Amino acid sequence: MLLAAVLVANAQDALYQDVHYTINENRLTAEVTLNPKASGELFIPETIVAGQNRYTVTAVGENAFKGCKNLTAVVLPKTIERVYRSAFEGTGIYLNKENWMNGCLWIDSVLIATDKTIKPRFVVPESARLIAAGAFKGNKTIQRVELLQNITRIDHETFRDCKNLQKIIIPLSVTSIGEEAFTGSGIYLNEKKWKKGAFIIDDCLIATNNDLPAKYIFKNKIPIRLIAERAFANRKNLRSVTIPATITAIPTAAFYQCENLTEVLIPESVKEVGNFAFYNCGLLKAATMPKGLQRLGAGVFYGCTNLKEQVLGDAIEVLERACFLMCRSIKSIVLPAHLRRIDDGVFAGCASLEAIELPPTLTHLGEQAFAGCASLRKVVIPAGINSLAKQTFQGCSRLYRIDLPDGLYAIGDEALDGCIALEKINIPVSTFRIGVRAFHNCQQLRSIALVDHIHAIEEGAFMECKLLEDITLPASLKSLDRGAFAQCVSVRTVKLNPGLKTIEDGAFCQCRSLREVQWNDSLQSIGVDAFLECKNLRTPLFPPTVRIGKNAFKGCK
Q1: Bridging pattern class, strands 215-217 and 240-242
Q2: In whole angstroms, how far apart are CA 481 and each of 28, 57, 460, 501, 511?
Q3: 361 near 337, Cβ under 8 Å?
């Protein structure tokens, strides 16, 4: 549930010049997404502007223009790094045979697709700058392919199910190979190409099967220089891997759901670990990160429930979303000294994490960043953080202290919801918003100073803070939202500020110890159930013009 929420939260769409994009705030990149009504001639720029940022367009996503029969031409920018064949299937461009040459469909030097009229032996021309994912998929004519030094990536399913493909030359310029790039092809199905459970082409490890040894050490005569995406995925017999010093990147989902993997030896040569690289490797205990590591991708260690500690080198500036999500055994982690961002859900569900020192360089703390860290006891938020995001510390049931910085302007929805051990908090004078259920169920919170700049105390903000005793509303507050202090059973007195005009529905519902409310002359309305079952409330003296909602004082004996 946490992961789903994190991934949904990170999907951000943008519309620029009538084209839809999905943007990545970390990398400041944009991908063309679904545009089912695209028509005519379309120009895709190198950069787009969304909000206050400029994003580089690097991809045309799956099915982006699929079925757009009136789309007759597209200009692709030089910044494009990935294109999917499916993006143009069924478009006017794809259906117009005049756009095909020798069995190939080209758009701005990008090979989009091939058909049965292609030559069996194909050399990718020097003018080509990119091959689309799935460009040769299912092509039964192709037998041999030679890639030249101008190609840097073999993408997802590029040669899948090419039954007669027996030979391919992969140049040194290729630095990444997508998942299932050769699955079902003639060369993949050739048993002689497999050695000890590994399928290798030109020193590139493409895939593995169940014949792989439980303890795998690369012993090729010529060192492996590249590992393809998902190369070891779902290898349930794999227990230990030693990655050679010739490898510079562990790709996306490389060890995805290797559920019996306990140890990975990673050399100092590795600079990047891709998204979901060790996803759900539940027995993984040791995966020491190189000091020079520059990127730790999204969901890298998601579900590694036996991982106990991590030390991250100072070259990492961003911890991408969910990268340690549900690492329930991790007790300590040393963060990079120059870390700028902790994205959504990075440590969510790390139930054993007891302490964390956030570096002063930190400027972004994402939603659910520490949600469910049930052992976390104390946190100091750096000065560069100007708001607590939604559910940042939700369910941190042992968190008794959190120091907020001067300059913090908002405490987001459910930011500290369920922090039942939180005893005290100082809200900075800069704060103007306390979000929905921000302090809900903070059962040990006895007092809180609501500074005069607060303009919003939103729905259920302090609901079920059972030890909270006295409340003075800030001078800037015009309306108290529904259920803001509901079920605060120890509250005895409430002092309304002079400018308060509205008390919303159920604002003080079931505050059983409430005896006195110091009313003001500006109050205009009291909502439904506002003081429901406040059994000890004395006779209220408020202006005669106040509108009183249904059951506002029901049960006030």
Answers
A1: parallel
A2: 37, 42, 8, 11, 16
A3: yes
Host H or E run for residue 311: strand 309-311
Cα–Cα distance for residue pair 55/47, rounded to 1 Å: 5
Where are the strands (E) in 45-186, listed by range? Answer: 47-50, 53-60, 71-75, 82-83, 100-101, 104-107, 110-114, 121-123, 130-131, 144-146, 153-154, 167-169, 176-177
What is the maximum alpha-carbon separation in the chain?
Answer: 93
End-to-end alpha carbon distance in the chain: 44
Q: Give 306-356 pLDDT, tens digit per residue.
A: 998 889 999 999 999 999 999 999 998 999 999 999 999 999 999 999 999
246: DSSP letter: T
**CA–CA gap between residue 16 and residue 280 (Å, rounded):** 37
Give the tokens for residue 377. Answer: 């006891």
Q: What is the mean pLDDT of the chain?
A: 93
Q: pLDDT tens for residues 455-480? A: 999 999 999 999 998 899 999 999 99
In 67-223, the DSSP E strands lie at 71-75, 82-83, 100-101, 104-107, 110-114, 121-123, 130-131, 144-146, 153-154, 167-169, 176-177, 194-195, 198-201, 204-208, 215-217
Least-confidence region, from 143-152, 199-208, 219-228, 272-281? 219-228
* DSSP assignments along 116-175, one per residue: TTS-SEEE--TT--EE-BTTTTT-SS--EEE--TT--EE-TTTTTT-TT--EEE--TT--
Q: How far apart are CA 337 and CA 317, in angstroms?
A: 9
CB 333 within 8 A of CB 312: yes
Sign of the CA dihedral 61, 67, 71, 73?
positive
Integer Cα distance of 206 and 158 in angstroms: 13
The conformation of residue 141, written as its DSSP 8-state character, comes to: S
Helix H segments across 11-136?
92-95
The alpha carbons of the chain give a radius of gyration, in whole angstroms, of 29
Tokens standing for residue 495? 């002092």
**CB environment 91-108: b (16+ within 10 A), e (fewer):** bbbbeeeebbeebbbbbe
pTM for the full predicted model: 0.90
3-state SS record for 363-392: CEECCCCCCCCCCCCEEECCCCCCEECCCC
Residue type for 95, please? L
Q: Could you give the C-alpha distances from 231 to 168, 182, 185, 207, 489, in angstroms and in order?
A: 18, 11, 16, 4, 57
Q: How many residues does the chain have?
A: 557
Residue 193 in contact with residue 205, Cβ under 8 Å? Answer: no
- The answer to whether the beta carbons of residues 459 and 482 sit under 8 Å apart is yes
Report the 10 Å Cβ neighbour count for 457: 25
Q: Tens digits of per-residue pLDDT, 500-540?
A: 999 999 999 999 999 999 888 889 999 999 999 999 998 77
What the block records as the tokens of 72 is: 């007759």
Mean pLDDT of 492-496: 92
Contact criterion met (CB below 8 Å) for 372 and 345 = no
Q: Are strands 410-411 and 433-434 parallel, antiparallel or unpaired?
A: parallel
